[in-house]
Amino acid sequence: MTRTNLAPNKAAITAIGSYVPDEVLTNQDLEQMVETNDEWIQSRTGIRERRIAKSPSHSTGYMAIKAAENLCAKNNIDPKTIDLVLVATITPDYQVSSTAPYVASQIGATNAFGYDISAACSGFLYGMTAAAAYITSGQYQRVLLIGADKMSSIVDYTDRATCIIFGDGAGAVLFEPSINTFGFESAQHGSNGIGRDYLNIHDGGSLHPINDTTFAEKRHLVQQEGRTVFKYAVKHMSEASQKVLTKHALSHEDINYVIAHQANKRILDATAHQLGIAKEKVLTNIEHYGNTTAATLPLVLSDFEKKFKTGDKLLFTAFGGGFTWGAAYLTWNYDYKK
User: Fold this and answer.
1) SS3 assignment, position 110
2) Fewer CB in a 10 Å sphere around the end CB: N or C, the chain?
C-alpha cells in the first residue's frame, strides 16, 4: 500500500474582533488616587489612559462575549460553525467554572467546546499555537481564540507601582485553514517557575487561601517586582524572537511588523533594540489601553488590521507571570476589505 504524504493545512487568522469598556481612567485621574503624575507615568510606561469595566456585571466573560460578537458581526460568521472556543485569561469569571464554555454558549456557538488558558500575559500567544495545531491537524475547521482580562478586579488602586499599568479589554481572532500559502508558521515558547516569586497574586490559591488577615493586607491583589520583571521580559522576548527568526532564515529587515505584548513602552523599545528592529515596526496602543494582559496582542491586531497586507511577515512576542514567554511568526492571510 502506497501512502501519499499530504502537506498539512496551514492555519490562518481570517477574522478579528475586539471590545474595550467605555470608561476611561486617565493619568490625571490617578493623580487624585495615588502619589504620581502624568509625566512620570508616561516617561516610564508610555501609558496615557486605560479602559476600566466599572460595572460589576461587566466581567471578563462579558468582554469576551462582546469581542466575539464583534468578530462574528463584522465578518458574517455563524457561531454554529465554530468548533472550539479558547479564552486566554487570568481573571476568569469564576475560579472553578471555565469562562470559555460560557462564552461559547452565550454567543450561540452551540457546536463548540471550550476551555481557558492561564499563562498570564503570554496566554494569547500560547493560544495561537494551540489554535493553529487544531487546524493543522485537520481536527477542526474554525477555532475562536479570545484574550480577555478584567485587570481592574485584581489591582490595588492604592499601589502606585501597579495601578498605573493595567487596564481592561478583550480581543478575538478566528483561525481557519489557509486558502493560500500564508498563515501561522511556527512558535518558540519558554517558562521558568522562579517567576512566581516576582509577579503574582500571593493569596487566593490552594497554597495560601484567603483569610481575614491576608485580605486586609491586600495579598489577594496583583503584586510585582518591576525591575526583575523588566530584565527577564527583555531577555526572553528578544531571545525567543531571535530563535524564530533564525529558524526561518529571516533578518530583522524581513519583518514588516512586530506585534508585542503591551506591558511597558520601555520593554518594547528595549526588545526592539536587542533585535535590531526599527521602532516604527513595533505596533503600539499601550498609550490608550495600558497592559490588558491576555488581551494586548489581539487588541493590537484589531487596531491595526487595516494596515496589514496579504503576505506581510508578522513577529509576535510576549512575556508574562510564571514566568512565561514566547514568540511566533505568522504571514498575514488577507487584505482588509471592510
Assistant:
1) coil
2) N
Active-site position among 70, 121, 163, 333:
121
Task: Verify whether residue 261 is a known catalytic residue.
Answer: yes
Domain count, the chain: 1
Number of CB atoms found within 10 A of residue 7's CB: 6
Domain boundaries, position 125: 11-177
**Pairwise CA distance, residues 56 & 77, whole Å:** 29
Which cell is 184 given?
501561522
Q: Which of 58, 220, 261, 288 is catalytic?
A: 261
Helices (H), the chain: 27-31, 38-45, 60-75, 99-107, 123-136, 160-163, 212-216, 226-247, 265-275, 286-289, 296-303
**Does 119 fall in a domain?**
yes
Active site residue 208: no
301 in any annotated domain: no
Q: What is the pLDDT of residue 223?
A: 87
pLDDT surpassing 90 at residue 210: no
Report if pTM > 0.90.
yes
Q: Which residues pair with 11 in a beta bridge?
A: 177
Q: 278: helix, coil or strand?
A: coil
Contact between 220 and 156 under an 8 Å Cβ cutoff? The reply is no
- HSE of 159, CA atoms in CB hemisphere, 13 A: 18
CA distance 274 to 104: 40
Residue in 27, 70, 264, 291 annotated catalytic: 291
132 is a domain residue: yes
Whether residue 291 lies in the annotated active site: yes
User: 37-68 pLDDT, tens per residue?
Assistant: 999 999 999 999 999 999 999 999 999 999 99
| Domain presence at residue 101 | yes
Q: Cα dist. 233→103, 132, 138, 258, 319 in Å?
A: 31, 25, 34, 16, 6
100 contacts 114 by C-beta, under 8 angstroms: yes
> For the segment 141-150, what is each residue's pLDDT rounded down to a tens digit?
999 999 999 9
Residue 116 sits in a domain of what CATH number?
3.40.47.10
